[in-house]
């Protein structure tokens, strides 16, 4: 999937490493991503990693963190 420039406004999306920058990518998609980006993220990244990012993130917006904590709790 090609990362959207408007989602990664502070960097060049072509230079983002999908593995090394997983937390950064997950946080941005959870906070600002479209449905298709969220679906891609859930297929590409392990559920445990996404859950860990939500639990430990200090940059997710509070409402985003609450929503995804609830959504990931029983999956």
UniProtKB/TrEMBL annotation:
Source organism superkingdom: Bacteria
Pfam families: DUF6922 (PF21956)
Domain DUF6922, residue spans: 3-54
InterPro entries the UniProt entry points to: DUF6922
Name under which the protein is recorded: DUF6922 domain-containing protein
Protein source organism: Candidatus Taylorbacteria bacterium RIFCSPLOWO2_12_FULL_43_20
